[in-house]
Specification:
Radius of gyration: 26 Å
CATH architecture of the largest domain: Alpha-Beta Barrel
Strand order of the largest sheet: 4-5-6-7-8-9-10
GO molecular function: 5'-3' DNA exonuclease activity; 5'-3' RNA exonuclease activity
CATH topology of the largest domain: TIM Barrel
Number of helices: 17
Domain Polymerase/histidinol phosphatase N-terminal: 89-154
Low-confidence stretches: 1-32, 444-449
Protein name: Protein TrpH
Biased composition (Basic residues): 20-38
Distance between the termini: 113 Å
Number of domains: 3
Structural class: alpha/beta
Shape: globular
Region (Disordered): 1-40
Largest sheet: 7 strands, mixed
Oligomer: single chain
Mean pLDDT: 84
Order of helices and strands: HEHEEEHEHEEHHHHHEHEHEHHHHHHEE
Number of strands: 12
CATH class of the largest domain: Alpha Beta
Helix content: 40-55%
């Protein structure tokens, strides 16, 4: 009987082991997104629309076919062997122009190495790195979405709630923001506040018996870059006051921490309204960091918020409020554990399509406003607004006989035929068809006979 009992126990253990193994495999499979399957008709149409936009300014490149891909249970693309490149979107990244560790060129190179096809550079309170990123991206066939992460403060109306720092991501067309001077003035005031904020942090650290030097922080930030908490933290590590960046934030620099300080951040609602007024898409960054997310997000939605990052939450609030569900790695390039890599946040095909479905009409309107201003006054300052993020690309393919050629070239790079063949753009073309350009860039009226 002992033998039978042992056999029964062995069978039981074997069955249990097999069952546990199956459960483990199922759990692992579920974690990876579940089974792979063909795209639905809706996903196929979305994929086609997205890929056409991605390769719009790359006529020599053929968009990948939806037949080359399957999707997992979350709707994320999975390549079928060597059938094509995934359309990886990276919508949240930083360079040395704010608190990132890499130059825009190195950032683009890294994105290319990770298979990213669309990269949004979203430095804190500045768009100064965009031109460099655009030039670098041309070499790798990467599309750049000009972006910025705006530092704001949410000020509740009720006395029981406290103010909270809120970061708003703004995404613009390839042409950049309309009324760019207004946005730049807005961002400039925030950057001025960042200098004062960083100096206050250094002062607080000094009072805590950590004699950090302001010059040390400024050197790490670099000339002309508004210092942030990351620069202060890096200086603390280099000076030996903390072991690593995580410790600097955990002990001193966290929101409300002993060395934390605020700057001159505008109200969150004001930032969102300005983004909307300048032709941008407004998205809430890392909402999981908020202490009172539901109340704040509801009010930001009322102010014009288009979407929110959800890759570290389930997105139910976004669904309830009708907000776009987006995400990105928030890559800074500091290395080490805990940092998501560029392109590591896999957005579902339908999420990307929904984003572009909202963004493209907004961007089209901004492009129309910028080109329209130039048609009304074909000055060098208005031309600079058109070519701000892509002068080389616009002028590289031969001469432009008249400003209508300039408009046609821009529209071919930025919009589909359907988007550009409107009465408004035709009126702009007509106005500029009478203005020629010589090699010096001076506009000369064409004599009409």
């Amino acid at each position: 009987m002992a033998g039978d009992g042992h056999l029964l126990q062995t069978i039981s253990n074997s069955n249990c082991s097999s069952h546990n193994s199956k459960k483990a495999k199922d759990k692992k499979k579920k974690k990876r997104g579940g089974s792979k399957k063909k795209m639905t008709a809706e996903q196929t149409l979305a994929f086609k629309s997205v890929s056409e936009w991605v390769f719009l300014d790359q006529p020599s490149s053929l968009p990948p076919s939806a037949a080359s891909f399957v999707v997992d249970d979350f709707g994320v693309q999975k390549s079928l062997g060597k059938g094509g490149e995934k359309l990886v979107f990276e919508l949240h990244s930083h360079s040395k122009f704010s608190d990132g560790f890499l130059s825009p060129v190195k950032l683009v190179e890294r994105a290319h190495g990770n298979g990213v096809k669309v990269l949004a550079l979203t430095d804190h309170d500045t768009m100064s790195g965009i031109p460099e990123a655009v030039e670098a991206a041309r070499r790798f066939g990467i599309k750049i979405i000009p972006g910025v992460e705006i530092s704001t403060m949410f000020s509740p109306s009720g006395e029981s709630e406290l103010e909270e720092p809120v970061h708003i991501l703004a995404y613009y067309s390839s042409c950049g923001p309309a009324r760019s001077e207004e946005l730049e003035k807005f961002l400039g005031l925030i950057r001025d506040g960042r200098f004062l904020r960083a100096k206050n942090m250094v002062s607080k650290l000094n009072k805590l018996k950590l004699p950090l030097k302001w010059e040390h922080v400024a050197r790490i930030a670099g000339q002309g870059v508004a210092p942030g908490r990351m620069h202060v933290a890096r200086a603390m590590v280099e000076a030996g006051y903390v072991e690593n960046l995580k410790q600097a934030f955990a002990r001193y620099l966290f929101d409300g921490g002993p060395a934390y300080s605020t700057g001159s951040e505008p109200l969150s609602e004001d930032a969102i309204q300005l983004i909307c007024n300048t032709g941008g898409v407004a998205v809430l960054a890392h909402p999981w960091a908020l202490k009172n997310p539901v109340s704040i997000i509801r009010k930001l939605k009322a102010a014009g918020l288009h979407g929110m990052e959800v890759y570290r939450s389930d997105g139910k609030l976004a669904d309830a409020l009708g907000l776009l569900k987006l995400g990105g790695s928030d890559f800074h390039g500091r290395g080490g554990q805990g940092e998501s890599e560029l392109g590591s946040v896999n957005l579902p095909v339908l999420a990307v399509h929904d984003f572009l479905k909202v963004a493209r009409p907004i961007w089209c309107g901004a492009i129309r406003d910028i080109l329209g201003s130039y048609a009304e006054e074909p000055s060098e300052s208005n031309l600079a607004r058109i070519t701000r993020f892509g002068r080389t690309r616009i002028f590289k393919a031969g001469s432009l006989n008249c400003d209508k050629d300039l408009v046609d070239r821009c529209l071919s790079l930025w919009l589909t035929n359907e988007e550009s063949q409107t009465a408004e753009f035709e009126a702009i073309r007509l106005k500029l068809s009478h203005i020629s350009r010589n090699q010096g860039g001076i506009q000369v009226p064409i004599e009409i006979k």
